[in-house]
Amino acid sequence: MKVLVIGSGGREHALVRHLLRDPQVEAVIAAPGNPGIASVARCEPLPGGVTDGAAIADLAARHTVDLVVLGPEAPLVAGVADLLRERGYAVFGPSGAAAQLEGSKAFAKDVMTAAGVPTAQARVCATLPEVAAAMAEFGAPHVIKDDGLAAGKGVVVTDSSEAALAHASTCLDKPGGRVVVEGYLDGPEVSLFCVCDGTTVLPLAPAQDFKRVFDGDEGPNTGGMGAYSPLPWAPADLVNEVVQTVARPTVAEMARRGTPFSGLLFIGLAVTAGGPRVIEFNVRFGDPETLVVLERLASPLGGLLHAAATGDLADIPPLEWSPQAAVVVVIAAEGYPGTPRTGDVITGVEEISESAVVLHAGTARNEAGDLISAGGRVVSVVGRGADLDQARQAAYGAVSRVALAGSHHRTDIAAAACEPVVQG
Ligand code: AMP
Ligand code: GLY
């Protein structure tokens, strides 16, 4: 099969890398891709951006692809999957209507309530007095979320009422702005990806993401600074429980509404004393979690995504997993998650060991052909090993060889999980 992958981040580099390992995949084309993807697959420009459905359909036609994988949320929320399906293509990714599970936090809460999914209490607010009342009801720490898409940066969790109200005010000032105020969920976070075809749900291995920019979970939220899998501290039945209490009821509720969910249901959870609770849904693979999850997936990825796109997941044999552990560390540009500095030369990404691989995200080539930084999260380094400790060493060993002026990364990815005691 021939596959077209849309996007240009570390997630898409990982998708392309693992699709190419599937013997049934004869070619992968990426658009727009990035310099890392270009070293393993053909990249096509997408001048109108990843939401230009007509251009994506033209690429699918020109390359006679059998499957289109939409990586980021923007084209999904914009309904690009619908347009491609109308033109007869198999698409991995939900319809625009089903993508509202990520596109609107208020919609996601409504579906969770209807499906009886365990989650935080929440109030959708359109004015500051409503926000203040909800904050008083739930108490501190305050959780204030922009209702719309905000690239993982629309959420503020704080003990300070002033900071909470200031963030709410910024969100409400946007046209049609709404904020969701939530009760605080206390417990370690888990990302669980479920491959769905509208009815059947197939969970992948769980991972943990590190959202804050600095060590020790300090500083502002980012798109994700690192991740690891497996989770030695997680309850043994966690995946089963989340499939039963979250994924299946949600997929059933979406089907009942006439907007079946197919593609990747990304369940962001807090494992609280009262059991797993949903923090958020996303409708695409997470970045950087995907880099460690796919590194451990031993089953062919092309067959899996194609089966999800065509409603045939029930026929897929049980997924196989490598017993190895994987750790990913993101190297970010100076200034990220604010305005990143770009245009600096990156070196050292080619000299990577057997047990580590560098995946590109915000990279580009300058006129001289040098690899330069072109975004906030620049490259992601994935290490593999017999256990988390070895995977961590492989990842950080490779990180130390990558040079980028002004860059920063967390030094504590998977550190607590390598300790023998349960951590949070
Ligand atoms: P979201 O964009 O909804 O995933 O939120 C980003 C991050 O904010 C999450 O990964 C959590 O760390 C934190 N967060 C969101 N909602 C809650 C909540 N109800 N309780 C505690 N932390 C939360
Ligand atoms: N790493 C979290 C996300 O992809 O949203």
Domain unit count:
4
Beta-strand percent range = 25-35%
Structural class: alpha+beta
CATH architectural group of the largest domain: 2-Layer Sandwich
The CATH top-level class label of the largest domain? Alpha Beta
Question: What general outline do the C-alpha atoms trace?
Answer: globular
In words, what does this structure look like?
This protein is an alpha+beta fold. The protein folds into 4 domains: 2-92, Rossmann fold, CATH 3.40.50.20; 123-182, Dna Ligase, domain 1 (2-Layer Sandwich); 186-315, ATP-grasp fold, B domain (D-amino Acid Aminotransferase, Chain A, domain 1), CATH 3.30.470; 325-418, Phosphoribosylglycinamide synthetase, C-terminal domain (Glycinamide Ribonucleotide Synthetase, Chain A, domain 4), CATH 3.90.600. The protein has helices at 10-19, 35-38, 53-62, 73-77, 80-86, 100-103, 105-115, 128-138, 161-172, 238-256, 289-296, 301-309, 388-399; strands at 2-7, 27-32, 42-43, 67-70, 91-92, 122-125, 142-146, 155-158, 179-182, 189-197, 201-203, 208-209, 212-214, 218-221, 226-229, 262-272, 275-282, 325-332, 346-347, 356-360, 363-365, 371-373, 377-385, 403-404. The strands form 7 sheets. A 5-stranded parallel beta sheet has the order 3-2-1-4-5, sandwiched between helices. Helix 1 links the parallel strand 1 (2-7) and strand 2 (27-32). Bound molecules: adenosine monophosphate (AMP) and glycine (GLY). Glycine is lined by residues 152, 209, 223-224, 282, 286-287, 289.
